[in-house]
Structure formats: structure tokens, C-alpha cells
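[agent] plan:
  1. take the single chain provided in the ticket
  2. run structure prediction with default settings
  3. attach C-alpha cells to the ticket
  4. add a short note for the reviewer (M.T.)
[agent] executing step 1
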Amino acid sequence: MPEKIKIIIDEKELKAELFDTECGKKITDALPIESKINEWGDEFYFSIGIKMPLDNTATTKVKAGDIGYWPPGEALAIFFGKTPLSTGQDPVPASEVNIVGRLIDSPSILKSLKGAKKVRIEKE
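[agent] step 2 finished; step 3 output follows
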């Protein structure tokens, strides 16, 4: 069963879920997590201090609303629109990410939160 979580940015709460994969479970076990947000186009990414390898979900084909784990930065990435590598409407990560979850709320909400400095993720 996916784990229901909430992502809190600038006091705005978004509902999301983390999948029942080894990587997803390791992130769930580490909650709550607070981190400083970095932006790359319409992607928020932030260090979570968890070291995991790429797994069988690893891909560069993501959609707005996907949550990925990016091993080189030990980071979570939340995709909500085009990134610098996009050629169409879909985001494209800098390199492969493990797909570990997805937003339940609309990813477009994140566009209004660009410039935010901190994120907190906790179990719902």
C-alpha cells in the first residue's frame, strides 16, 4: 500500500503518496524530513540524506506530479512542469530517477510556490 504523505511548502499542504518500493519505504521510514528547496525549471529538488542506488523504476521519462529519488544528489525531486532539458510539455530530469511517489493534489499548485526556501514532508 502506498504511504499517504503531506508536502508542506510555505504553509501550503499538498497531499501525495510514496510507493511501496524499497526506495520509497526507506524514505517513508526517514519521515519527517525538512530540507532546503532547489529549483531546476519547474522541478523542486532537495537533499534528504538517504543513499540508495537506481532501481527497476529508474527512468528519465517523468510526468508532472511524479516524485523521483535522484541518487547523485541523495535528493527527492518533485516534477510540476518543464525543466531545462524538456523538449515537449513533460519534465525531463537531469539524469535517471527512481519513481518513488506522486502528488495527489494538482502539480500546478507548485508553480505558485516557486521561490520558496524550505520543504517539510511528513506522514499524513
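[agent] step 4 note for reviewer: The beta strands are 3-9, 12-18, 33-36, 38-39, 43-47, 66-70, 75-79, 98-103, 118-123.
[agent] ticket updated
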